[in-house]
Amino acid sequence: MMRAIPEEKGSLDAVKERTGGRSAKVREAVLQAARQILMQEGANALTHRKVAHIAGVNASTVYRRWPDRTRLIADVFRSTAESMVSIPDSGSLHLDLYEFLKMITSMLSSSEGRKMIQGAIDATSSGDELVGSAIRDVWEQRFQQAEMMFERAIRRGEAGFEGQRRAILETLIAPVWFRILITQEPVDEEYLAANVTRILKQMS
Predict the structure, then answer these.
(1) PROSITE patterns annotated for this entry (predicted)?
(2) What is the pLDDT of residues 139-177, one digit of tens each?
(3) What is the second-level CATH architecture of the domain 20-67?
């Protein structure tokens, strides 16, 4: 009869979860470990056992919460994107879009943000269609979340730009990505504010 392998005493999940905080700590440790591997070695290097070793948890914990590698990779990019770019609620659509673009600019200008984007590109191009599909789903979810800014605008009595929201978001975001990642031109607050004003005027 095989003996069960005991939990490591020093691991974050060594004791059964009795408080809400432990589950959150384990999740964050795993995502941080997976993020480290993705940024430094790429999607192909990510395995459940390697993540568990870096996170200080048992591999069974990682398998239980993320049954396949695809879900884990998608969760890493989703949590990173949400932590670096939230959906603002500033009191007007113009200001919401401006603040949203400011956060995207800060993300793309940061070392972690650049690594995340490169990791997402590498993961999508890795040849693993399940991983690529998962990453595309993350971006699609982010666009859907961003549409909340337009829903709030309607509740405030502003124009909601129904049927034009995706086009507005893409038209605003694409130049920021291009300037920062390709041409390395400056993206300042004046540039962002002017773009928001121009695009909303064109779409109205």
Answers:
(1) HTH_TETR_2
(2) 899 999 999 999 999 999 999 999 999 999 999 999 999
(3) Orthogonal Bundle (1.10)
Query: How many other CB atoms are there within 10 angstroms of residue 63's CB atom?
Result: 14
Q: How far apart are CA 54 and CA 1, in angstroms?
A: 31
The residues spanned by each domain of the chain are: 20-67, 82-203
φ/ψ region of 163 (left if φ > 0, alpha if ψ in -120 to 50, else beta) reads left
| Amino acid letter, 165 | R
Kindly list the distances between the CA atom of residue 182 and the CA atoms of 89, 151, 175, 179, in Å, as whole numbers in the listed order.
Answer: 30, 32, 10, 6
pTM: 0.79
Fold entry, domain 82-203: Tetracycline Repressor; domain 2 (1.10.357)
**pLDDT tens for each residue of 44-53:** 888 999 999 9
CA distance 204 to 37: 45
